[in-house]
Specification:
This protein has about 200 residues and is an alpha+beta fold. The chain folds into 2 domains: about 30 residues; about 130 residues, Immunoglobulin-like (Sandwich), CATH 2.60.40. It has 3 helices and 11 strands. Strands 3, 4, 8, 9, 10 and 11 form a 6-stranded antiparallel beta sheet that branches. Strands 1-2-5 form a 3-stranded antiparallel beta sheet, with no helix packed on it. The longest helix has 29 residues.
Amino acid sequence: MGTIPSTTVSAKSANARPTSAPTPVYRHLFRTLKWATSSAVVLLGVVSAVYGVWGPLWPMEPAFSAGLPSSGSPFDVAFKVENRSVLFPLSNLTIACEVRYLGGISGVQISNNTVSASGANRLGPRKTGLYVCPIRQKLVINGRDVADVAREAGIAFRTEYDRPMFGGRASSESEAFTLQSRTNPPQWMLGAPLR
């Protein structure tokens, strides 16, 4: 049988670390970019999930929708106003009803009249309020209240409220609502009139 040759290892070579080439700068940049991109994707996913479940985390302008039609005058119907932000209230809220046009009153055409809506001046986060445009008794033609005789109408809402993050006041305008008098009972619809 043969013997295994013995090798001697010097103390200097046992403690020596293998030397490697330095990592190029572009690899560090690539790793950093990869980490930053994946972090941004994760953050975007979390914000999207929160937005999808609860709503936006940032301040939003109020959203308007027509109230349910009633057997009374459509000018007495309350409009719903929603604050869609999850975190920020709409404070010192003022809403003006802009009557864009009133028609169907024996040849009389009225346009661009504004009245202040009645309702609360604050909407908390994710809250909804009801607001009425008090047109009744404000516009009278030939001794008759326009709210009782108008067959065509268009209304939009102008709002002002405190900016929650930057101070000052913010303003916005809703889309127009059109009175659909051909339905029974007449009701407000979002958008331009159907002809």
